[in-house]
Design goal:
Tyrosyl-Transfer RNA Synthetase; 5 strands; binds adenosine monophosphate; two-stranded parallel ribbon; globular; mainly alpha
Length: about 325
Amino acid sequence: MKKVIVSGIQPTGEMHIGNYLGAVKNWVDLQNDAQYDRFFFIPDWHSMTIDYEPATKQRLIKNLVRDLLALGIDPKKSTLFVQSHIPEHLELCWNFLTVTPMSELEKMTQFKDKAAKHVENVNVGLFTYPVLMAADILMYKSMIVPAGEDQVQHVELARVIAKKFNNKFGTTFPEPKAMLTEVPRVMSLTESNKKMSKSGGDKSCVFVADSPDIIATKIRKAVTDEQGVQNLLELVKLFDVSTLTYAHLKKDFDAGALKNVELKDTLAELIAAAFADFRNRKEEISDAEVAAVLETGRARARAIAQQTMEEVRIKTGLR
Ligand code: AMP
C-alpha cells in the first residue's frame, strides 16, 4: 500500500521563497517517488482566521494554483484541491473537536503568536485551527506531512488527536509525522531573527513571482547585521546549483573580505535565475486549466473523504 502525503499552503498572499524552500520544493521532489500517494491543497477555510478582503480570495486561490502548477506540481501525479470544496473536512473537524483537550490547544505557539499579532481579531477559529488541520491530514489517512518547522507542533497535535480518537472509537487513523526539508525555516529579509512570513510585509519576503528588478531591490534593502549576512549567505548556498559561487563568497566571508553589495547582487541574480522558467510557465496557465485541475482534484479527494466519513459515522455511533 502506498504511503499518503498531505500538505497545504494558505491563500493569504503571494507565495514566498520560505514557502517554496520549506515546503513546496519538497512536494515537487516527492512526486517522482512511486511509494507515495500525494494530496496537496489550498486551505481556504484556514485563511479565514485572519482578516481579509472577500473580493480578493478567489484571485488569491487561482494565483496560488498557477504558482503550484508552474513550479512543477503535476496533477497527473498529485491530487490538487481546495479545502472548502470538500465539506467532509469540517465534519471530521467537529468529531476531532470533541476528543481534543483544551489544554493541548492552549500549548500551540502559532496561536499565541498570531493572537499577539492580530489582537483585534483573536477568534475561536484561530484557536481551533490545528484541529481542522488534523482533519485535513487524517481524512486521507496520511502518515507524512512535508511542511516547514512552524507546522511541526500542529502535526504532533494531529498525532495526539488520532490516538485519542482511536482509543475511544477503535483504530481508524494512522499517527502522522512532519517531514522537514533541509531549510525548515527561511528568515525574513528585514528582521534577521524572524522567519520569513507573508504577514511580515512585502519587503521582508522574496515572492517566487517577483521580477528580477524587484528581487534585486528587495535584496539590496535586506538587513546586514551579523545574522542578516548569515541568512543571505545561506540563501546563496541554497540557490547556487553550481556550488562554485557559494564556495567563492564563503571563502571571502571567512577572510572578512566579503562586500555586502557583492553578496546581495549575486544572491539576487541567483534567485531571479532560479525562477526564470517558472515565470514563463506561469504566464501560459489559463483560468480554464486551473478550473479543470481543481475539479479533477475535488472529485478524487471527495470520494476518499466520503469513505472516511462513512467509517467515522459508523464508529462514533451516528449511523
Ligand atoms: P502557509 O503559507 O502558512 O500556509 O505555509 C505553507 C508552508 O510553508 C507550510 O508548510 C509552512 O511550514 C511553510 N513555511 C512558511 N513560512 C516558512 C519559512 N519562513 N521557512 C520555511 N518554511 C515556511
